[in-house]
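Anyone have tokens for Histidine phosphatase family protein? Sequence:
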Amino acid sequence: MRHGETDWNAEARLQGQQDIPLNEAGRRQAAEAGHRLAEILPEPDGLPWLVSPLGRTRETAELARKAIGLPPQRYTTDDRLKELTFGDWEGRTWAELRSVDRNMVKARTADKWAYVPPRGESYAMLHDRIALWLKTVTQDQVVVSHGGVARVLMVLLAGKASGQAAEEPIWQGKLLVFRNKTAEWV
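Reply: yep, here.
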């Protein structure tokens, strides 16, 4: 489950690891995601819930759980599930970045997967972090995290090419279901 919308998402600001809260639309999306989860998973409390420690993901998990009658705080957090950091770019829009340094933005566009923003992290670096976490996973789980993590899991669990995963649409407050080497948004 990707977290619901924040004001920074609505403004197209790069959030990365900034702890930006959900907005009203994001809160609705979180509850809706909980209902969708209950439709596809008859016992959503029968699996462990693992959540990025950032506020927007914790709030999404709590609202989703509450919407389907589960105790809101019954989940575990894991730092490895945090979004990638955009470093010095966090809080800025792409338009702002293009006005400051068009060449850096062009370089990232040319290789979105491997490009490392100043004092930031690439999808390739996030891939390594998530791959280490994935080695510890021994059963199906409900994971509430971020768009970058979803892209990396598309590579690791669904076999998408990294360049393709970097360009895939990522939806706020929706479920990305992995099964049989496929990934499907619901």
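The beta strands are 49-51, 76-77, 142-144, 176-179, 182-185.
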